[in-house]
Write a structure and sequence with these properties.
Elements (H helix, E strand, L loop, with lengths): L14 H4 L16 E4 L10 H9 L4 E2 H8 L3 H13 L3 E4 L10 H14 L1
Antiparallel strand pairs: 1-2, 1-3
Helix pairs in contact: 3-4
């Protein structure tokens, strides 16, 4: 047995307390692949600490899943917090590209082989 105190690996604050008991953001839920980024708007100091942490991490584009990993919170909790920030105009959202609009990999391979054959 060691004399070190145990290190806490989880937050002492329960997720339902962080979200104020809400399980959704009120609008269309953000998918885990959705990219988010903080705006240049000044944010009030009265935001809860989790909102401040999100804004600090979202200086560049991050997915909802990445934000959840940085905060150490479940993605469902982060989705609610991000919905708050979107509503307040502090976060901009870039939805993922739908599968139908993604480029076909076989076409890209054909273009690559065509370019390689000309070199």
């Amino acid at each position: 047995m060691t004399d070190r105190p145990e290190e806490r690996t989880t937050s002492a604050v329960r997720p339902y307390v962080i979200t104020g008991g809400r399980s959704d953001g009120g609008g269309e839920p953000l998918s885990w692949e959705t990219l988010v980024m903080a705006t240049d708007a000044a944010f009030p100091a009265s935001l809860q600490p989790e909102h401040h942490m999100i804004l600090a991490h979202c200086q560049g584009l991050l997915s909802v899943a990445e934000v959840a990993a940085h905060l150490g919170q479940p993605p469902s909790v982060v989705q609610v917090l991000l919905s708050d920030l979107v509503e307040w105009g502090l976060i901009v959202v870039r939805p993922p590209v739908p599968p139908a609009e993604r480029t076909d990999v076989t076409m890209l391979r054909k273009v690559l082989h065509g370019l390689e054959s000309r070199l």
